[in-house]
Amino acid sequence: MVAGVALRSSGALALCAPAARNLARASRTSLGLVRPPGPLPACGCGASFGKVPATPPKSSWAAPSCSPVPSRPRLLCRAASSASVAAPATDTQEGAAPAGAGGEKAVARKQRVLSGVQPTGSLHLGNYLGAIKNWVALQDTFETFFCAVDLHAITLPHDPASLAHTTKNSAALYIAAGIDPAKASIFVQSHVSAHAELTWLLSCVTPIGWLNRMIQFKEKSLKQGNEEVGSGLLTYPVLMAADILLYQSDLVPVGEDQKQHIELARDVAKRFNDQFGGNKWKKRGGRGGRIFKVPEIMTPPTGARVMSLTDGTAKMSKSDPADGSRINLLDSPSEIAKKIKRCKTDGFEGLEYGNPERPECSNLLGIYEVVTGRSKQEVLAECGSLSWGQFKPLLADAVVAHLEPIQTRYNEVVADPAYLDTVLANGAAKANETARLTLKNAYDAMGFLLPSTLR
């Protein structure tokens, strides 16, 4: 017998009374129930019982390893017992209540990101550099959902003859730009009916005053005229909130012009949770806890706002009637060169960033910076002393070279319609699986009689 512990032939341990009391005391201490009168032995991770390491190991943010000897009981330190410490890019399973909220047991998952682009017209360089290029960088770290938001495309007058075609082309360009269907869910918004259903539920709890304050609604309604503007334009931010909240999104990558809409989505989520979630839901026999995750804004690191080629103060846009204002992702090399040659510049000498009197200069240098992968300092060292006549061909060549592999891959994708259909079907199936759980919880929390398919 060693230190009050007798070994049996089976390999298990038999404890004498003092050792049993020590084990019980140490176990309670490791759970934070009792503070020991003196230091207890450290386990393999080097942390003493009852003490929590300042931070978990940075490499994985997992609990330190305390490997047990097979068939032998072990004493766990506080750090080793905290096996639920999650990685930074994890959260609870979609639709599940957070721990301690009276809901189901939380399940760790990667943090979730959702984003999309309207399939109106051809996707352009602004869509790519401001959004899609950054999505590619996210798909390895996060659980990602990327959709062609065709329901948003009809909030303004649209061409029914081209909507299906541009929607499919947008999805093909997602893949061509580097979104991997094996890593991300690519789907069409209208193929997941929960988007429209949740929009109605959210619209019933969203104050009209919140929507009237949306800057984009004010700007677009002025252009269209009040008599011509549909109510869909007013409720557009509610649909956007439904898109985000359906997937319990942790992060939403958006440009500066969309931040107000994400703030609205956050406010709607909080209002809905307060009105219908928590103990109110539980008392009615529901799961309890929150219904929606409150998302955070993710600002893309580069290229977040690409401006028009004809007006350096206006965002590059598909809705601009002048095709020369944008570089479409499928423009030919000659079209790209022509648009850049004719783009608006100024009469200043040299090239520079950040001069408020030279918005076009900052925009074109920014495009060159992103497509070449150079830093601002490198761009200025190379181009700062150039004239516009020298810089424009350089920029055109860089844009053409950057878009060439995307155009090649796009042609491969559209040449195989069955492949694209399969990608969209699989993406919609994955999206539906997640969205239906959230929708079920929203219906249940509001007191609806659920159909048998949702119970």
Automatic annotation (TrEMBL):
Protein name: tryptophan--tRNA ligase
GO molecular function: ATP binding; tryptophan-tRNA ligase activity
Predominant localisation class: mitochondrion
Residues forming coiled coils: none
A GO term from the CC aspect: mitochondrion
HAMAP family reported for this sequence: Trp_tRNA_synth_B
InterPro entries (UniProt xref): aa-tRNA-synth_I_CS, aa-tRNA-synth_Ic, Rossmann-like_a/b/a_fold, Trp-tRNA-ligase, Trp-tRNA-ligase_bac-type, Trp-tRNA_synthetase
Family label: Belongs to the class-I aminoacyl-tRNA synthetase family.
The enzyme's E.C. designation: 6.1.1.2
Catalytic activity, reaction form: tRNA(Trp) + L-tryptophan + ATP = L-tryptophyl-tRNA(Trp) + AMP + diphosphate + H(+)
GO biological process terms held by the UniProt record: post-embryonic development; reproductive structure development; tryptophanyl-tRNA aminoacylation
Keyword annotations of the record: Aminoacyl-tRNA synthetase, ATP-binding, Ligase, Nucleotide-binding, Protein biosynthesis
Keyword hit for Nucleotide-binding: yes
PROSITE patterns, alphabetized: AA_TRNA_LIGASE_I
Gene3D superfamilies per UniProt: HUPs, Tyrosyl-Transfer RNA Synthetase
Compartments it resides in: Mitochondrion
One Pfam family here: tRNA-synt_1b
